[in-house]
Amino acid sequence: MEKDQAAQGALYALGAYFLWGIAPIYFKQLTAVPAFEILTHRVIWSFLLLLALISALGYWPRVRALLREPRQLLMLLLSSVTIGLNWLVFIWAVNNDHMLDASLGYYINPLFNIVLAMLFLGERFRPMQWLAVGLAGLGVVIQILVFGSLPWVALVLALSFGCYGLIRKKVPVDPFTGLMLETLVLLPAAALYLWGFADTATSHLGDNPLSLNLWLISAGIVTTAPLLLFAGAARRLRLSTLGFFQYLGPSLMFLLAVLLYDEPFTRDKVITFALIWTALVIYTLDGLRQRRRNVLQNSGGPEPLK
């Protein structure tokens, strides 16, 4: 039974990160729509879909319980701002041919999480983690100093998603309830902008072709489908195991950018990616070594060689 659960969890994780990895294909269908306008659709249709899911799953008692917790609501207010920023920059990057930078940001994210854990959760770096973070930092510094280009898309995506994960770690709420309330926080601004201020060629749904409106409405599914799969995977897999699937998303983005959308893989990006990939190999091997050490210690086995 446990093996079946693990196998299901692995399939769910593959599905979640695969969908996140190919999400740029969806957003490329909306290049005629401004990034902020796409964001408003993502918020509105995600909220409505999550509202239906909350009702279908019978999660309203959880919502009411959360509404009685001011501190947790404040944390979700902060997380809604960080995830909104992350969505906006990602959409802009994809539709302005900066998908390689978006991929780099999600490669950096696990290493950035180490820094956040040290600063805010009191965790200590292991020597190999220091080396991995140092190599990633070196890649960014070289790109800035030697090539004169600041990878701001990558840094904003890594920073915003890392902060989002840190905040959500401190709020004990299931993904659907949490995301529904986060989109609810963003909903007034999104609706006010789309139906009150936006005046672009695509902002009036009644003037759009049906095909474009269907693409825009699908933003809700694009947001929630991988979340459903990820939640299923998280219930069935250890967090350490789940972490090894996280490189699938940025790897697919990288391949799409280079092979399908012909983004230039320039020398500055070659060097930066090479250092980041080396850092991730070190980070992953260190995680496997630490996991083996913990298993041996918990089972009463011999202390592994140092």
Question: Notable features of this structure?
Answer:
EmrE-like, cell membrane, RarD, globular, membrane, 306 residues, 79% helix, transport, 0% strand, mainly alpha
Write the layout of secondary structure elements.
Blueprint: H1 2-28, H2 35-57, H3 60-67, H4 70-95, H5 99-120, H6 127-145, H7 152-169, H8 175-197, H9 210-217, H10 219-236, H11 239-243, H12 248-260, H13 267-298
Give your account of this protein's structure.
Residues 9-142, 153-283 form the EamA domain. Helix 1 (2-28) packs antiparallel against helix 10, helix 2 crosses helix 10 and helix 4 (70-95) packs across helix 8. The longest helix has 32 residues, at 267-298. By secondary structure, this protein is mainly α. The relative contact order is 0.19. The protein has helices spanning 2-28, 35-57, 60-67, 70-95, 99-120, 127-145, 152-169, 175-197, 210-217, 219-236, 239-243, 248-260, 267-298. The protein has one domain (2-298). It is built from 13 helices and no strands.
Shape: globular
Q: What are the secondary-structure elements, in order, as H or E?
A: HHHHHHHHHHHHH
CA-CA gap between termini: 35 Å
Measured as a percent range, the helix fraction is over 70%
> Main beta sheet: strand number and arrangement?
none
**Count of discrete domains:** 1
Assembly of the depicted chains: single chain
InterPro entries: EamA_dom, EmrE-like, RarD
Subcellular location: Cell membrane
Membrane topology: Multi-pass membrane protein
Protein name: EamA family transporter RarD
